[in-house]
Design brief:
The protein has 17 helices and 13 strands. It is α/β, with parallel strands linked by helices. It holds the Pfam family COesterase.
């Protein structure tokens, strides 16, 4: 997890909940301590056997970090990640996974923590960066790869960037987001929580990890009142919404940062046709009889090995995604309505929550590159040769109503390059339009440009080409070397390192709550972004595609409302009970 120019030694942390053996990492040249790392910290009961496809359960109240003999327990090795389908994608050598660091087991609900070393923390504790890794709910590779090791944050800019970094493994793909009517019925048997198995298990995992962090980060020198959650934009948006609307609960998220995404489409219901079809197909492929009672089918499916289930999922033309799970669930039926009408923004404003949100320039290049890889999911783009095939491909992700509306907006008599159109639509809908529409919905709720900080990255360092395929341009995931200063190990020149520092330095101030005039983000109007331009310069400018993408956001909204109301525009004045 660290580069070879470091020195490591054990470090014992003693807390009121027992002792941990972690790793202190120092600069090999200067011997200056950089950070202390504690990994494989359990934050929930293992979700295995009968707990598969159920909400995570909290640890017992008397749990301790120490071992059974009250001696320090070893927290130096990394934990397993959720079993997932690893695509055969070659983004470049910089993203090559370590061969032994990501074992896959369903017992995967662990937290990794990085703490600044070599100095006292601020009054109240270090700010906390709770990082959500992932980009499509199908994989959670873990903050255990070289390209996301935060060492350069601590090495190069420790004065500007002091923070605790927390990352939690969570369930993804089939194990994190299988949903069906059978699982909803199965959950009725749990009297203490009748919505324990309705779907969105990965989202529940992340929430429990945030709650664990809020309760325990002070033991590591962190400030529980300064928890900043972000990274994967869609997952962050769901967590932010849940935190804002959860009844009878004090909000835990102080600030949120959404990288290249948010939420723009209401997920399908847990009992709808797509989840039902997924569940039925899996049962058929593992020889579970359709005629059995639902509780028997669920019980038998829980007994199938994770290896066998992954084999089945690998050949299915589908993805496993968040669902609307209704009362008591994670995603309410009025999720998008509360975003469109500004109520989410109103609640965040009342709680004094700040949001940082933005995107990168070449999302379409990323989608095009990924869908040309040999192990891509769904229909091959090469097979798209007509408008109908484009709509069919879009229906893997969107409703037929929205897919038709998108095809109508983008089709042209002068362009029948259907694979290119697909990549363009996905980039605009999943990223560019959703980021801008989400931001403006927050403004609608009363948040200002001091509350919502927008950015755009149009810069790709030349030094990156040796390590990351140039065909990908600069897109989500590939901007990680910028936010993590990780390009230091990916061939950034001295000038490129300075460009990154100039752009990203205010982000550290955002994390610690410095939003004064001198904070340095620079945006004043709602349509302005802090831009890392193609030449490496940093400027505040009008977002050149803001109006166009807001128009697409409105089209997405109207298509969803037509589907809900059968053609009549729904009223958005006031929202019924969310939970």
């Amino acid at each position: 997890m660290t580069t070879k120019d470091t020195a490591q030694k054990p470090h014992v942390l003693r807390t009121a909940r027992g002792s941990l053996i972690g790793t202190e990492v120092a600069d090999a040249e200067t011997n200056r301590p950089l950070y202390r790392r504690y990994t494989r910290i359990r934050y929930a009961v293992p979700p295995v056997r009968e707990k598969r496809w159920r909400k995570p359960e909290p640890l017992p109240h008397d749990w301790l970090f120490s071992d059974g003999n009250n001696r320090p327990r070893d927290y130096r090795g990394v934990g397993s990640i959720c079993p997932l389908i690893v695509p055969e994608v070659n983004l470049g050598s910089y993203f090559g996974p370590p061969a032994t660091e990501n074992d896959m087991e369903e017992d995967c609900l662990f937290i990794n923590i990085w703490v600044p070393a070599g100095g006292e923390g601020p009054a109240g504790g270090w700010p906390v960066q709770f990082q959500i890794i992932g980009d499509d709910f199908q994989s959670c590779p873990g903050l255990q790869h070289r390209f996301v090791d935060p060492i350069d944050i601590f090495r190069e800019h420790n004065k500007d960037n002091p923070r605790i970094i927390v990352f939690a493994q969570y369930r993804c793909g089939l194990f994190g987001f299988l949903a069906s009517e059978e699982l909803v019925l199965d959950s009725k048997d749990i009297k203490s929580d009748p919505f324990a198995a309705a779907g969105n298990f990965g989202l529940w995992d992340i929430r429990m990890a945030i709650e664990w962090t809020s309760s325990n980060i002070h033991l590591f020198g962190g400030n529980p009142h300064c928890i900043n959650v972000g990274g994967f934009g869609a997952a962050t948006a769901y967590q932010l919404h849940y935190d804002a609307f959860k009844p009878f609960s004090k909000p835990l998220i102080r600030r949120a940062f959404l990288f290249s995404g948010a939420v723009g489409v209401q997920p399908v219901f847990a009992q709808s046709s797509k989840p039902r079809a997924q569940f039925a197909e899996i049962c058929r492929r593992v020889n579970i009889d359709d005629d059995l009672p639902s509780e028997d089918r669920v019980k038998l499916l829980r007994g199938v090995s994770s290896h066998k289930l992954l084999e089945v999922a690998r050949t299915m033309q589908t993805t496993f995604d968040p669902v609307t799970d209704g009362p008591g669930g994670f995603i309410p039926a009025q999720l998008m309505a509360s975003i469109w009408n500004g109520e989410l923004g109103c609640r965040l404003k009342a709680r004094n929550v700040q949001v940082l949100i933005g995107d990168t320039s070449n999302e379409d290049a990323y989608y095009s590159f990924m869908d040309k890889q040999p192990d891509s999911k769904g229909q091959s783009l090469v097979a798209m040769h007509s408008r109908d095939s484009l709509v069919l491909r879009l229906c893997v992700t969107f409703s037929e109503t929205l897919a038709e509306a998108l095809a109508a907006r983008y089709e042209s008599p002068y362009n029948n390059d259907w694979p290119w159109l697909y990549s363009k639509i996905m980039a605009d809908v999943q990223c560019h339009a959703t980021v801008r529409g989400f931001a403006h919905s927050l403004f609608k709720g009363g948040m200002t440009s001091q509350d919502v900080l927008r950015y755009h990255i149009a810069w790709r360092p030349k030094g990156m080409d040796e390590y990351i395929n140039p065909d990908t341009g600069i897109s989500h995931i590939l901007d990680m070397p910028i936010w993590w200063y990780g390009g230091w190990s990916a061939g950034f020149s001295r000038r490129e390192r300075q460009d990154v520092a100039n752009f990203a330095r205010p982000f550290a101030r955002f994390l610690r709550g410095d939003i004064s005039v001198m904070f340095g983000w620079g945006t004043e109007a709602q349509t302005e972004v802090r831009m890392l331009a193609a030449d490496g310069s940093v400027l505040v400018t009008e977002d050149p595609i803001d109006g166009k993408m807001k128009g697409l956001w409105n089209l997405m909204r109207d298509a969803q409302l037509r589907r809900q109301s059968g053609g009549t525009r729904s009223r958005l004045n006031g929202i019924p009970g969310f939970w």
